[in-house]
Amino acid sequence: MLDFYKQEHYSAQNAKHMAQIIAHGPIVFQVARILRDKGILSAVEEARSEGMALKDICAKVGLSEYAVRVLLEAGLGMHLVKYTEDEKFALTKIGYFILHDPLTNVNMNFVHDVCYKGIFHLEEAIETGKPAGLRELGNWSTVYEGLSQLPPHIQKSWFGYDHFFSDIAFPEVIKQVYAENIKKLLDIGGNTGKWASASATYGDDIHVTIMDLPGQAAMAKQRIEELGLSDKVDFYPANILDESIPFPTGFDAVWMSQFLDCFSEEEIVSILKRCHNCIDENGWIFILEAFWDIQRFETAAFCLQQLSIYFTAIANGNSQMYDSRVFKKCVEEAGFEIVEQIDGIGLSHTLLKCKKKS
Ligand SMILES: C[S@@+](CC[C@H](N)C(=O)[O-])C[C@H]1O[C@@H](n2cnc3c(N)ncnc32)[C@H](O)[C@@H]1O
């Protein structure tokens, strides 16, 4: 993947066009989203290759001719729709992906509901190292403190994004983790209890402790109770950034999925160092992360590189979707060695199986 970034990929003409797409980014984004959300793309799709006339689309979606016309004309420019020979509107492949592709929809909802307003404050975030855009969502020092209090539609998009990746990765990776004869596992950043519930039902003798912020631990507890798994899952509410709070001990393994990317390099090292006490000399640290530099496809790397900016402007101001080389240095520095690396899990994830350095 890294070699890909050592080359120019555009002719001058294409580069200038790409530069215009970037220059008009927020307009392109909102037009595409509204064409999706107002049912205009769906209406056009129903007409298939025959296409649909402007007035028929207006009648179908209940918007004025002016409104639908400006949106669809912009949509022509971004190749979401095309003209048929008799200048009706028909859906293109890009329009199809905007309408139906789960990855595109999850990203679009997350960008609109969680990021859009906050990203306006990116410059301030870059200058101050603070998540300056978070004030658009609420009055917390990091987004994680506010997760359980977000307005429902924003919370839906946040968890929709988070769960989309873990739901695909977990069934694959769970076999790798429990192949190591793990019975007692500490799930740091256990979120809504998805990994804990999957683990609890994976093996009769598996016990999981979720360590997360109090608001999240409470959400997870409710879900675990609803699933009838309370005897197999414990909770350890704590802010991991408070170094005075001890970590729980006596585990075969620590599991951190999409968790360490929520922290700066210094914080990652500090968290990992404190993980030493949770396990004995043979214990495991399992880290599931998506690294942009080891993606097979440019599209996957692009999504991670762009979403990194959410961490800068909104989440906490100092974290990101990491380059694996930067991340692995933190693991080393904290006194662990990576004994196995498994790439290609789910859509974009890597499992790092780590042990204490001997
Ligand atoms: C991106 S989510 C990952 C959730 C889950 N592990 C997964 O793979 O889907 C990050 C989790 O870390 C938790 N977290 C963030 N900052 C934290 C902190 N300072 N202390 C404890 N947990 C924290 C969040 O509440 C959230 O549940």
UniProtKB/TrEMBL annotation:
<dbReference type="GO" id="GO:0032259">
    <property type="term" value="P:methylation"/>
</dbReference>
<dbReference type="InterPro" id="IPR016461">
    <property type="entry name" value="COMT-like"/>
</dbReference>
<keyword id="KW-0808">Transferase</keyword>
<keyword id="KW-0489">Methyltransferase</keyword>
<dbReference type="Pfam" id="PF00891">
    <property type="entry name" value="Methyltransf_2"/>
</dbReference>
<dbReference type="InterPro" id="IPR001077">
    <property type="entry name" value="COMT_C"/>
</dbReference>
<feature type="domain" description="O-methyltransferase C-terminal">
    <location>
        <begin position="167"/>
        <end position="337"/>
    </location>
</feature>
<dbReference type="Pfam" id="PF21212">
    <property type="entry name" value="Dimerisation2-like_dom"/>
</dbReference>
<dbReference type="InterPro" id="IPR049480">
    <property type="entry name" value="BVU_1015-like_N"/>
</dbReference>
<dbReference type="GO" id="GO:0008171">
    <property type="term" value="F:O-methyltransferase activity"/>
</dbReference>
<dbReference type="InterPro" id="IPR036388">
    <property type="entry name" value="WH-like_DNA-bd_sf"/>
</dbReference>
<dbReference type="InterPro" id="IPR036390">
    <property type="entry name" value="WH_DNA-bd_sf"/>
</dbReference>
<protein>
    <submittedName>
        <fullName>Methyltransferase</fullName>
    </submittedName>
</protein>
<dbReference type="InterPro" id="IPR029063">
    <property type="entry name" value="SAM-dependent_MTases_sf"/>
</dbReference>
<keyword id="KW-0949">S-adenosyl-L-methionine</keyword>
<feature type="domain" description="BVU-1015-like N-terminal dimerisation-like">
    <location>
        <begin position="17"/>
        <end position="89"/>
    </location>
</feature>
